[in-house]
């Protein structure tokens, strides 16, 4: 048995070139899932554990299933285990999720915070509360983007003073260097999602809460894509400053999924933990 190496710790090659992995969708009648407990650095186990989950051929998700978004029992177990392990290395440092609008910072952040026994905060929500409940869209309308950015910086400053938190930042938080001064007190993780996938997601949920992407008419996907492209060109360098990156393209390939939108938030949160652990290890932090 050999580790595949590379991006994710969640896959292994067994014997002949047949991949067994951490896959929430069953494409075959039966699926085997192998988890390397050594890689998880579990102190009480030293050998590989074979986890066999049995899926009916017509079923889209494993029979063993719990939680939202089709997260399997195995996925939840892995997340919880990894969360405990990483929490013990963090010494209360905050985790800041950065990435484009709709990349899943809030969705993944909530699950991640539970796994670490951390609190969760969304900087947009924090700004809205500071503004007496005025929505982000309304703040943009009333004061413009720079007005919103001032409050966003204030929110990040306040959040940086509270330990043991996962913070979902707004997509544009990375463009102000002062925000990095606050976020650098913790660990920053970039959720790297292809623009096409973001545009599909945003076109499906609408742009009412995301003023920078709001479009009046026309093909929702194309307009979202074009605006995301413009924003991403301005921001990609800033996102690259993050301490760790979770690439959904790499993760989808590891999980043998054709569409990055099929990756569960639980699997993404687990990969965030794997990348944080790698960052801590590589940097002796
Ligand atoms: N892995 C995922 N699987 C399915 N839906 C997701 C996933 N991640 C995010 N979503 C959905 O995409 C939308 C945007 O996600 P959100 O977490 O609000 O992104 P962000 O906070 O980065 O703007 C939400 O409707 C959310 O439910
Ligand atoms: O990318 C951006 O500039 C913004 C992203 C939004 O947050 P999400 O990334 O949580 O959608 C919100 O802060 C505001 O609409 C501006």
Helix content: 40-55%
| Oligomeric status | single chain
Q: Stretches where pLDDT falls below 50 for ≥5 residues?
A: 1-68
| Order of helix and strand elements from N to C terminus | EEEEEHEHEHHEHEHHEHH
Q: How many strand segments?
A: 10
* Major sheet characteristics: 5 strands, parallel
Number of helices: 9
- Could you tell me how far the N terminus lies from the C terminus, measured between alpha carbons in angstroms? 31 Å
Secondary structure category: alpha/beta
On the 0 to 100 scale, the average pLDDT is 80
Name the shape in a single word: globular
* Whole-angstrom Rg: 20 Å
Please state roughly what percent of the residues sit in beta strands, choosing from under 5%, 5-15%, 15-25%, 25-35%, 35-45% or over 45%.
5-15%
The bound ligands are: adenosine-5'-diphosphate, shikimate-3-phosphate
Side by side, the strands of the main sheet go 7-8-6-9-10
């Amino acid at each position: 048995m050999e580790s595949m190496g590379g991006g994710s710790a969640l896959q292994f090659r067994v014997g002949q070139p047949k991949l067994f992995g951490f896959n929430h969708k069953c494409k075959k009648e039966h699926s085997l899932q192998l988890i390397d407990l050594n890689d998880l650095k579990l102190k009480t186990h030293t050998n590989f554990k074979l986890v066999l989950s049995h899926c009916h051929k017509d079923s889209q998700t494993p029979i063993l299933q719990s939680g939202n978004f089709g997260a399997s029992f195995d996925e939840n177990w892995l997340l919880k285990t990894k969360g405990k392990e990483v929490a013990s290395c963090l010494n209360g440092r905050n985790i800041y999720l950065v990435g484009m609008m709709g990349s899943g910072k809030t969705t993944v952040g909530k699950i991640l915070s539970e796994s670490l026994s951390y609190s969760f905060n969304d900087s947009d929500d924090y700004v809205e509360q500071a503004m007496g409940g005025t929505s982000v869209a309304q703040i943009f309308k009333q004061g413009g983007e720079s007005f919103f950015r001032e409050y966003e910086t204030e929110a990040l400053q306040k959040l940086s003073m509270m330990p043991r938190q996962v913070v979902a930042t707004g997509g544009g938080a990375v463009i102000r260097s002062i925000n990095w001064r606050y976020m650098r007190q913790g660990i920053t993780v970039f959720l790297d999602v292809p623009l096409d996938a973001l545009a599909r997601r945003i076109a499906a949920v609408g742009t009412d809460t995301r003023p920078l992407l709001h479009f009046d008419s026309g093909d929702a996907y194309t307009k979202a894509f074009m605006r995301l492209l413009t924003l991403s060109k301005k921001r990609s360098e800033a996102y690259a400053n993050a301490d760790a990156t979770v690439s959904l393209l790499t993760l989808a390939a590891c999980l043998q999924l054709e569409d990055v939108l099929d990756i569960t938030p639980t699997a993404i949160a687990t990969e965030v933990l794997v990348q944080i652990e790698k960052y801590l290890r590589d940097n002796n932090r």
